[in-house]
Amino acid sequence: MYLTHLECSRCGRGHPADQPQNLCECGAPLLARYDLAAVAAAVTPERFTLRPADLWRYRELLPVADPRHVTTLGEGWTPLLRTPAYGARIGIPDLIVKDEGLTPTGSFKARGAAVGVSRARELGVERIAMPTNGNAGAAWATYAARAGLGATIAMPLSAPTICRRECLAAGADLRLVDGLIGDAGRHVAELVAAGGVFDAGTLREPYRLEGKKTMGYEIVEQLGWQVPDVIIYPTGGGVGLIGIHKALHELRELGWVEDRLPRLVAVQSTGCAPIVRAFAAGEDRARPWADAYTVAFGITVPAPLGDELILAALRDSSGTAVAVDDAEILADLRDFAAVEGLLLCPEGAACLTAARHLRAGGWIRADERVVVLNTGAGLKYPETIDVSTVPVV
Ligand SMILES: *Cc1c(COP(=O)(O)O)cnc(C)c1O
Ligand SMILES: [Zn+2]
């Protein structure tokens, strides 16, 4: 294994990686660091092509030492789908969707869960606990079951019921909270303080990020080790965006890609846009968003712990942050399905709305290659399509 240590994303302090870790003393998330020079000496990009089509193909850049600790359901290596018909409509002919809907548990949260659970098991954790908007809890409950770990999952009553069912099916201890993800977080904090459970909440342990960063490696490898011009990501806790940014920097340091970074775009809903507001105001931190609500449930995160990292990634990549409204998200979801045949999750559809607006405003040029993340399966959100008006013949 090439993992060397954990580094605080704010104060830079080093922490040992051979025991379970949460936040730094200064309150910021820890980042996994590797001996990249040794990785570059051990493996070349061409080797990956010969490996199985899952995220473990990048094992030198992942934090699991013993292959027997890998807990997998085949996650990763999702398709990059060209969508020229819809792309032509919105003036971006080279529009590509990375379809994470095909991931086990129906969302890209499985990437973080696979790596996070594998490493937790390797470090001797017996029970994980986390607050969730649904998909992360479902994924972690599922992978925990497979790894033989216990899982306590706290989620808002308003989270998609399919995610509740997934947690129960996987034998998790499910707690329903009458509130938002922050209220679920307070419940988990009490459990963690009482002892006996490992806090696996968003960015509170360092390895979920490592799983999600593999989306960045895959985009680049699937494009023939080329970076696209723009990557558009629906941002809640921001782990995927921070992860893709980390992956791109690692690939640059390895010398496997050119120096140019894709411009990263954080998409939020007008009903919950703390990152968009902070980005527009030129701030380094985001203030909590009051009365958050959006159909894109996965991005309803009023106070993301990784706000500093998200904002830094946007600025470092000359990216931007865009808020889109629910009615447009649902309309674009339908238009896209009718033209390309793929039913997106509302979070993925929000990225199309953002792409459309950014193209119309000239921020995206007609000749640019744009990758949109569809972070989950449309089938998990059947209520996005209203069938009540269909006549019975
Ligand atoms: C969790 C989630 C997101 C947001 O992911 P973050 O990494 O928390 O920003 C987007 N889409 C879906 C479907 C999700 O479940
Ligand atoms: Zn610190």
What does this structure look like?
- This protein has 393 residues and is of the alpha/beta class.
- The chain is 37% helix and 16% strand.
- The chain has 13 helices and 13 strands.
- It has a six-stranded mixed sheet with strand order 4-5-13-10-11-12, sandwiched between helices. Strands 8-7-6-9 form a four-stranded parallel sheet, with helices on both faces.
- Strand 1 (3-8) and strand 2 form a beta hairpin.
- Helix 4 runs parallel beside helix 5 (135-147) and helix 8 crosses helix 9.
- The termini are far apart.
- 55% of the residues are buried.
- Bound molecules: pyridoxal-5'-phosphate and zinc ion (ZN).
- Zinc ion (ZN) binds at residues 8, 10-11, 13, 24, 26, 28.
- The site of pyridoxal-5'-phosphate has 17 residues, from helix 5 and helix 9.
Distance between the termini: 63 Å
Residue-averaged pLDDT, rounded? 97
User: Biggest sheet, strands in spatial order?
Assistant: 4-5-13-10-11-12
Mass-distribution shape: globular
CATH topology of the domain at 80-107 and 211-384: Rossmann fold
Low-confidence stretches: none
| Hetero groups | pyridoxal-5'-phosphate, zinc ion
Largest sheet: 6 strands, mixed
| SSE string | EEEHHEHEHEHEHEHEHEHEHHEHHE
Return the CATH architecture of the domain at 80-107 and 211-384. 3-Layer(aba) Sandwich
Tally the beta strands: 13
Radius of gyration from CA coordinates = 20 Å
Count of separate DSSP helical elements: 13
